[in-house]
Write a structure and sequence with these properties.
The structure holds 2 protein chains of 2 kinds. In chain A, helix 5 runs parallel beside helix 7 and helix 9 packs antiparallel against helix 10. Chain A folds into 3 domains: 291 residues, no CATH class; 105 residues, no CATH class; 63 residues, Arc Repressor Mutant, subunit A (Orthogonal Bundle). Chain A has 15 helices and 14 strands. In chain A, a hairpin with a 4-residue loop joins strand 12 and strand 13. Chain A is elongated. Chain A is of the alpha+beta class. Chain A has a 9-stranded mixed β-sheet with strand order 2-5-6-9-1-10-11-12-13. Chain A has a 3-stranded antiparallel β-sheet with strand order 4-3-14, with no helix packed on it. In chain A, strands 7-8 form a two-stranded antiparallel ribbon. Chain A starts with 11 loop residues before the first strand and ends with a helix. By secondary structure, chain B is of the alpha/beta class. Chain B has a domain of 234 residues: Alpha-Beta Complex (Amidase signature (AS) enzymes). Helix content of chain B is 38%, strand content 13%. Chain B has an 11-stranded mixed β-sheet with strand order 1-3-2-4-6-5-10-11-9-7-8, sandwiched between helices. The two termini of chain B are 16 Å apart. Classes of the chains: A alpha+beta, B alpha/beta.
Chain lengths: 483, 483
């Protein structure tokens, strides 16, 4: 099935490939013992190796290689014997004036990523490389060639990265965004990165081109940089694709170049053209030995692989009938294990999932167990708690009140769903006390009747301090008015 | 007095280390103005270190096998707080914050550094004339070069400024100056000695090794500096060699091949002088007389070594030397933009030979030329490895001259780089395949200057090489006109 990007004219098809840089959450940097963390004080997380002092040598961080291979396997890649290479170019924040990366022999190749809607995006490679430092250009136009001076912070230099390069398989903006979301979920699930786009631990560049719908050619692409959020990614691709279509329709053609996404201005501006790009003079890094993972190592990685988000969503989907978004949210928050446990303990699946989605959007829910959640939902479905009460009890369970025991929390509040005859007595009394309102409820037009239903419900809730079950009240009012 | 005699005298308390140092410093004072072996003499630090050794001896501690032995360190090895220049203006004012592993190890063995020795800038050269601080002269004949690039380290030992020194050998830079100065010079197996703290020239070729007057001293120094170092990923994971205990085993039953292509044989390299070939043949006869079997063998690809080397070494150097950009350390020539600052700094900081090799290497790695140049050179290395492997199935060691001629006059070869490059034709193959090789003095040439012959062996054959080198030393003719 072909999908078409709705923002483009039907005769043009969007072609997108994404390059995602992910910072690996290792304790130390890729080639030295410096801590891999953020520091506000420049050049405090550095040593001779990551500042590229003469005579310093890199030593490979084995944990980083393991993390990279785990990511590769999560993306269905083959793991190959690989070598590090030098990518040579001059830039002040590149301490050695070359980046140690992988070139023709990457660790991970030929994988795929399945989006939530089933679309499969091919992964060309996921290779290991080091990050550069950070340059701040001060004065002038704020760029390297017109600044008064530049400051370099090497704290980030040598931080381990994996660059995940997709094939140009993405055809819509929504799929591009879904790809990034899915990748982030996988990274979190396998615990190799905190994957925060806003903080730069996950950075997305988009290669965008368009072609006549139905053709399979690959036209000149532009690489969009400086995309800082998923939303921004969508806007940037849409803008760029539109720009290409406009150029082609006016008889021109885009140039292959790197473009800078200006989020505020909502447009991309030309960067360096690929024709005057550096010749990186790649060659094998002689200071490092080839990486040759054994079959046993790969088997160990596979064996320790957690269930990935796609499978986790499927697992909940099979057991419930809630909307996809509910499941996506629950899995994204990592609460699917909790939900699954509660469902298996006998609680109603749809109620478990919606209750989690609506009322457990908190950072720390570790006090809630599958058992206690199942008990809560059963109390609710059994009529022991109203929906409002259940919401409140869950909040207190998460806060760890009364050891997270829903029964104890409910008892402490004196929550017990009212007996129905008790409720009926209350309603009868209200009808007597408010005859005008009652006749407007029974005989008024729709709007007025609705208003009066609100009035009576409010009175009942007030009288019962919220303990009455809203649905039971509505039912009772209906019966009384019909009777 | 040899380094070993000095060490035992100091360890027994018979001589004070301070006296030993003072005696050598006095010789340096008297003659280094003429020789220019040192870029820097660290007299005060040496006296302090010697006093500490004397104190250790006095308190009954053993300061190590090289206790109190003065040692000169080539000025491309990092020394904490002591200027390390590579004989280049570009490192002006830079003091490393760390010691090279070899420096730590010689100090741990009790040796005392007396200074940093002159070299061809960044170890690029064969005469020590490419130094920003002026040429070093051959102490045996001051109108001659000492060889290079480790000419300062060779001259320091030849002039009795120190009984031991360390050099680095990328294409012959220890062995050729050893031959020119009548010394023993050893290039160990690639990975046998840590490169951590050695300022890189050609990372896949560089090895640090010892200079001394005798084979026994050479063995003792290599024992001290060898062995695995976790800071160097290419360091071989095995303990230091035991060499001193094998020196008296002789060559009875050993099979030694005269390598035809590098020893004046037909179809081999040209330009070897007749006296050098004669001494090599006499060395072969001496080994045979001592009980070895000598046969002629062939490694056809050895003739391609020079061409392959002048692609690989400059290619790696072009990348290794990128970091000297004026941003972090050393010379900075200010200019209006960062890029112009880098260009101005490198233009002013590097000498002509370094610039030539950076250009050669940059070209060899360029897109479109890689396969024809660098890629082809890698194929030659593979071919040489295979051919050497099959020769070592037949013989234990190989014998060749070390250099085509004896020490040539200063200024003789500076006009045409090719006449300089061919100096390394016999030594380069060992670097390309990572094998060990030693140069041992064997008689003199027609001009009365020393001739060195070279013993080559397969990887990690150091014990066998030293065994044969000791036999060769014992059989060598007297020093003749040298004394």
């Amino acid at each position: 099935m072909t999908v078409h990007e709705p923002s483009l004219p039907e005769e043009w098809e969007l072609v997108v490939g994404l390059e995602v840089h992910v910072e690996l959450a290792t304790k130390t940097k890729l080639f030295c013992g410096c801590e891999n963390k953020f520091s506000h004080i420049p050049n405090t997380l550095t040593c001779p190796t990551c500042v590229g002092l003469p005579g310093s040598l890199p030593v490979m961080n084995e944990k980083a290689v393991e993390f990279a291979m785990r990511l590769g396997r999560a993306l269905g890649c083959d793991i190959h014997p690989s070598v590090m290479a030098r990518k040579n170019y001059f830039y002040p924040d590149m301490a050695k004036d070359f980046q140690t990366t992988q070139y023709d022999q990457p660790t991970n190749a030929d994988g795929q990523l399945a989006l939530a809607d089933g679309t499969v995006v091919g992964i060309e490679r996921a290779h290991i490389e080091e990050d550069a430092g950070k340059t701040t250009h001060v004065g002038g136009g704020g760029r390297i060639n017109d600044a008064t001076y530049s400051l370099v912070d090497y704290n980030r230099a040598g931080v381990p990265l994996v660059e995940i390069v997709s094939r140009p398989d993405i055809r819509t903006v929504e799929h591009a965004k879904a790809y990034v979301s899915e990748l982030r979920d996988i990274l979190l699930a396998i615990e190799v990165s905190d994957a925060k786009m806003e903080e730069g631990s996950m950075r997305v560049d988009a290669n965008v081109s368009v072609r006549p719908t139905g053709s399979d050619e690959l036209r000149t692409r532009c690489e969009l940089k400086n995309i800082n959020s998923v939303r921004s990614l969508g806007r940037a691709i849409e803008y760029e694709a539109r720009r290409h279509v406009d150029l082609y329709t006016s008889g021109e053609a885009p140039r292959q170049e790197t473009r800078h996404w200006d989020e505020e201005g909502g447009r991309s501006t030309a960067g360096r053209s690929k024709e005057d790009a550096d010749d990186y003079r790649y060659f094998q890094e002689p200071d490092l030995v080839p990486l040759a993972p054994t079959a046993a190592q790969i088997a160990e990685i596979d064996a320790s692989m957690p269930v990935l988000p796609a499978a986790r969503r499927a697992r909940l989907g099979e057991r419930s009938s809630v909307a996809d978004e509910v499941i996506v949210t629950v899995v994204e928050r990592g609460q699917d294990g909790l939900a699954l446990g509660a469902i298996e303990a006998g609680a109603d699946a749809d109620k478990v999932l919606t209750r989690i989605q609506n009322d457990l959007a908190v950072d720390d829910w570790s006090a809630v167990t599958s058992e206690s959640l199942a008990m809560l939902i059963q109390m609710e479905t059994g009529g022991e708690l109203t929906a409002t009460q259940a919401k409140q009890v869950l909040g207190e369970m998460a806060a760890g009140e009364h050891g997270g025991d829903p029964k104890a929390i409910a008892a402490a509040h004196g929550f017990e769903a009212m007996e129905s005859d008790e409720l009926e007595t209350l309603v009868d009394q209200l009808i007597v006390d408010h005859p005008d309102e009652w006749s407007r409820f029974v005989g008024g037009d729709d709007g007025d009747s609705k208003k009066m239903q609100g009035f009576f419900t409010g009175q009942i809730m007030k009288a019962t301090q919220g303990q009455a079950d809203g649905r039971a009240v509505a039912q009772l009012l209906g019966q009384k008015s019909a009777g | 007095m040899s380094a070993l005699d000095l060490a035992s005298a100091v360890r027994s308390g018979e001589r004070s280390a301070v006296d030993v140092i003072d005696e050598h410093l006095a010789r340096i004072d008297a003659r280094d103005g003429e020789i220019n072996a040192f870029n820097l003499v660290t007299a005060d630090a040496a006296r302090e270190a010697a006093a500490a050794i004397d104190a250790a001896v006095a308190s009954g501690k053993d300061p190590g096998p090289l206790a109190g032995v003065p040692i000169a360190i080539k000025d491309n090895m990092c020394t904490t707080g002591v200027a390390t220049t590579c004989s280049s203006k570009i490192l002006e004012g830079w003091e490393p914050p760390y010691d090279a592993t070899v420096v730590q190890r010689v100090v741990a063995a009790g040796a005392v550094m007396v200074g940093k020795t002159n070299l061809d800038e960044f170890a690029m050269g064969s005469s020590t004339e490419n130094s920003a601080f002026g040429p070093t002269k051959n102490p045996l004949d001051t109108t001659r070069v000492p060889g290079g690039s480790s000419g300062g380290s060779a001259a320091a030992v030849a002039a009795d400024f120190a009984p031991l020194s360390l050099g680095s050998d990328t294409g012959g830079s220890i062995r050729q100056p050893a031959a020119f100065c009548g010394l023993v010079g050893m290039k160990p197996t690639y990975g046998a000695v840590s490169r951590s703290g050695l300022i890189a020239f050609g990372s896949s070729l560089d090895q640090i090794g010892p200079f001394s007057k005798t084979v026994a001293e050479s063995a003792a120094l290599l024992e001290a500096i060898g062995g695995h170092d976790p800071l160097d990923s290419t360091s071989i994971d095995q303990p230091a060699f035991d060499l001193t205990s094998v020196l008296d085993r002789g060559v009875e039953g050993m099979r030694i091949g005269i390598l035809r292509e590098l020893s004046g044989g037909e179809g081999g390299v040209e330009g070897l002088s007749a006296d050098v070939i004669a001494r090599t043949n006499e060395a072969a006869a001496a080994l045979e007389k001592a009980g070895a079997t000598v046969v002629e063998v062939s490694v056809p690809s050895a003739t391609l070594g020079l061409s392959a080397y002048y692609l690989v070494a400059p290619a790696e150097a072009s990348s290794n030397l990128s970091r000297f950009d004026g941003v972090r350390y050393g010379l900075r020539v200010d200019a209006s933009t960062t890029g112009e600052m880098m260009t101005a700094t490198r233009t002013a900081g590097f000498g002509p030979e370094v610039k030539r090799r950076i250009m050669l290497g940059t070209y060899a790695l360029s897109a479109g030329y890689y396969d024809a140049f660098y890629g082809k050179a890698l194929k030659v290395r593979t071919m040489m490895l295979q051919e050497f492997a099959s020769v070592y199935a037949e013989v234990d060691l190989l014998l060749t001259p070390t250099a085509p001629t004896t020490a040539f006059p200063l200024g003789d070869r500076t006009a045409d780089p090719m006449t300089m490059y061919v100096n390394d034709v016999c030594t380069i193959p060992s670097n390309l395949v990572g094998h060990p090789a030693i140069s041992v003095p064997f008689g003199v040439g027609d001009d009365g200057l020393p001739v060195g012959v070279q013993l080559l062996g397969p990887a990690l054959s150091e014990p066998t090489i030293y065994q044969a080198a000791a036999a060769l030393e014992a059989a060598a003719p007297g020093e003749g006109s040298l004394s």
